[in-house]
Each structure stands twice: as structure tokens, then as C-alpha cells.
Amino acid sequence: MAVCTTVYTAASLHSPSSISRHRNQQLFFFSGEKRRLGKRSNSLEISCSAEFSTVVIGLAADSGCGKSTFMRRLTSVFGGAAAPPRGGNPDSNTLISDTTTVICLDDFHSLDRTGRKEKGVTALDPRANDFDLMYEQVKALKQGRAVEKPIYNHVSGLLDPPELIKPPRILVIEGLHPMYDARVRDLLDFSIYLDISNEVKFAWKIQRDMAERGHSLESIKASIEARKPDFDAYIDTQKQYADCVIEVLPTQLIPDDNEGKVLRVKLVMKEGVKYFDPVYLFDEGSTISWIPCGRKLTCSYPGIKFAYGPDVYYDHEVSVLEMDGQFDRLDELIYVESHLSNLSTKFYGEVSQQMLKHSDFPGSNNGTGLFQTIVGLKIRDLYEHIIEEKAAARVEATKV
Ligand SMILES: Nc1ncnc2c1ncn2[C@@H]1O[C@H](COP(=O)(O)OP(=O)(O)OP(=O)(O)O)[C@@H](O)[C@H]1O
Ligand SMILES: O=C(CO)[C@H](O)[C@H](O)COP(=O)(O)O
Where is the Phosphoribulokinase/uridine kinase domain (predicted)? Predict the structure, then answer.
């Protein structure tokens, strides 16, 4: 494996004088192709060996919408536990496992909490974020170069000294804006948008911020309202670019439900995405409605309803799989799994096994957990295909 290792620091990208200081920093060099950086090189750009490839996944969602839970499910599909960088800043937002590194895009806030207050902008506003640096650093990692990424400290509201991020096999960039900047968007091998309806978002935020963070109901309402215009303008618009959207809505099984406990969840899968074959129920391309409750699946009120079929989403052809309701017994999930195809599992029952393994995670009894698990397996499959493709290209290149 050859890895190019110029270190991009936040400072090096802003100040021309620091570019020369950092230009020749090379921290790691494995065997393989070596390209020397000329001392008088004007640019930090260096061409890296094609032997190394980081697959980049984008996960977009508003704060408190289940990104961390999704990340825990995804990391588990690859095996091993994810932890913050060892010996680093205790308030780091990064999670590293054997295969994946998850970086939080809040680290690219260019304004700290006070700066935002002074300028009267929210963290969702592009003016509070450094997209040039985000692009440079995601590109560097994708090409196999380590970066010195800034840290936004959620405890202090300040920008902390940067942390070193080495190129992983799979880089997940999660946060408010992974698909906002076209340059960053183009670096993504796959993208997901978690689309939580306002009613559900409110219920989740209350549950977490009141119970765990001691906020009052009024302050939670006020914070959601204050964020809404910027959320609509800058975050929600990104879903049109996503390869896959998990939409979470109130149930339709209980008339006028206002409890928000039972959920209707849709998995919107774009057609024609390389190495991503949408999952289907019973018969690919048909329109299907299925109530699985009966002899093989225990369902208490209000029951469970699945739907599947083709649709159009922001002018793209998509397949949509929907689940309304919740499971009573996860050990019976295999019945549902056996009617789904294109799951990219490695053995019969892998979806059910993953769900049972994390039955304590939020959403494990409904479509949020089921669809997050399925997307995790699809990402593993996509990753394996990309790696295979690169290996085949290398073999071809050696023949030439
Ligand atoms: N599928 C789910 N079903 C029910 N509640 C959920 C689900 N996912 C998340 N939640 C609730 O939302 C809260 C936030 O989830 P999580 O920490 O995964 O979100 P996040 O997007 O990473 O948040 P933040 O960006 O603010 O750190 C959880 O504590 C939980 O209460
Ligand atoms: O939307 C957010 C992303 O998670 C945060 O609100 C943003 O990062 C600002 O942080 P803080 O609320 O700590 O000032």
C-alpha cells in the first residue's frame, strides 16, 4: 500500500506563508510509488498511488436526528468497536474503528459559538462553515493523505487545536452539510440523508434534550423554531442529491396520532447508482402492499404494514420500501427478512442478527433500525465492489 502523506492543516490552507512551512511534512510513507515534492512546489497537490483508496460516504441530517445511532449500526456491520482517537482531545467528535473513520462536519465550523452570536448566524448557515477546508481535507483523505483536521468543541463552543486524521478504508463524513458544496459532493461514493419529519424530530429532541441535557420544553421549542428557516434553506435541500433517503414520519395506522411513538419509515433508493441495487419486497418493480401480521409475525395494535414500489423523487427514478408500525418480537424478524431481496447479506438472516445484536439502540423495533441496518449492509457491499474494481484496474495496469 502506498500512501501520500502531505499534512494539510487548517492554517496551511489559509495562509500562504504557512504553506511553505507544511509543504514537506510527510508523516507516513509505506512501500510503493513515491513522488517527491519539489521544494519549490507552489501547491500542496501531489499525485498519490492508486493502490490506496478511501471510500467516502456522506451522511446528512439535522442535529438530534439519529446520525450517531446510524453510525453505530454501520460500524458494527464492519465489525469492531468505534472509539475517539487514542490519547487525543477528550472532546473530539471523531470515531475510529478498524475499517471506518467517522468525522463530524461540525469540525468545519469557521465561526465558534461566540462568533456566530456576534454575526447573527446559525451553525446551519454556510457562512459559519469552511467549505474550502472541508473539500481540501476530504479530498486529501480520499487520495490517501493524512490531514490535521480542526475540532469544534461542543462543550466549550470553541475551535480546539486540530487532530491528526489518517486515511481510513471507509471515511464517513456526517453532519449538516456533506452534500451542500458541489466539490465535496463529487467526492462522495455514496450518500444518505436522514429525513426526520418535524413532528418526530420534536418528539426525539424532547426525549433527549430534556432527559439527558436538562433543557426546558420551551427552550427546545424555541431552538427548533430558530433553526427552521436555515434548516429549510441549507440542509433539507441536500436530500435531492442523496443516493438513499430514510424518511421518518408519524404513523398512518393510528388516526390522528399525536404521541409519535409508532413510526412510518420510508427507504427511498435511487435507481442507477453504481454498485447499489435497491432492496425489493417479493417482486422487483411491482407495487406491493403487505400486512405480515398473522401466524408468523406477532403484531399488537396498531399492527405492521409494508409497502413497496417505484416512484419519482426530485426527478429521479427511485424504489421505495416502507414500513409502518413496530415489531413486538425481534426474533421473528427473519420472517420479514426472508421476503426481502437484494439485501447484500453474507448469510441468511444477517439483517435479523444485526438487529438482535443492537436491540437496545433507539429504533430497533421499527423501520428506522431495520432500514439503517439494511443501508449499512449495502454500504459494505458497495465498498467491496469498489475495492475489487480498483484491484482489477491495478492488474490491468501492470499488464500494460
Ligand atoms: N430511530 C430512533 N427512534 C427513536 N428515537 C431515536 C431514534 N434515533 C434517534 N433517536 C432519539 O434521538 C436522539 C438523538 O439521536 P443521535 O444521538 O443518534 O442523533 P445525532 O443526529 O447524532 O445527534 P447530534 O448531532 O445532536 O449529536 C437519541 O437520544 C434518541 O432519543
Ligand atoms: O447543529 C449542530 C450540529 O450538530 C450544532 O448546533 C452546531 O454544531 C453548533 O453547536 P453548539 O450547539 O454546540 O453551539
Answer: 56-254
154 CB less than 6 Å from ligand 2?
A: yes
**Structural element, H or E, at residue 100:** strand 100-104
- In this prediction, residue 64 carries a pLDDT of 85
Q: Give pLDDT tens digits for 83-115.
A: 999 999 999 999 999 999 999 999 999 999 999
Task: Provide the pairing of β-strand 100-104 with 95-96.
Answer: antiparallel
H helix or E strand, kind and range, residue 225: helix 217-230
Distance CA 140, CA 194 (A): 26
How far apart, in Å, are the Cα atoms of 293 and each of 181, 304, 309, 359? 45, 7, 20, 20
Asked if 131 contacts 108 with a C-beta cutoff of 8 angstroms, the reply is yes
Q: Where are the domains of the chain?
A: 3-51, 243-400
Q: Which atom of ligand 2 is nearest to the CA of 152?
A: 8
Supply the residue whose CA is at minimum distance from atom 9 of ligand 2.
Answer: 123
pTM of the model: 0.88
From ligand 1's centre to the CA of 282, what distance in Å?
31
* Ligand 1 and 63: CB distance under 6 A: yes
Nearest ligand 1 atom, CA 71: 18
pLDDT above 80 for 158: yes
**Residue 125 to residue 105: CA distance in whole angstroms:** 13
Q: How far is CA 237 from the centre of its chain?
A: 16
Distance from the CA of 112 to the center of ligand 2, in angstroms?
10
Ligand 1 touching residue 204 (CB < 6 A): yes
Q: What is the pLDDT of residue 175?
A: 97
Q: Mean pLDDT over residues 346-356, rounded?
A: 96
Q: Considering only CA atoms, which residue is closest to atom 2 of ligand 2?
A: 63
- Whether 368 is in the pocket of ligand 1, judged by its Cβ within 6 Å, is yes
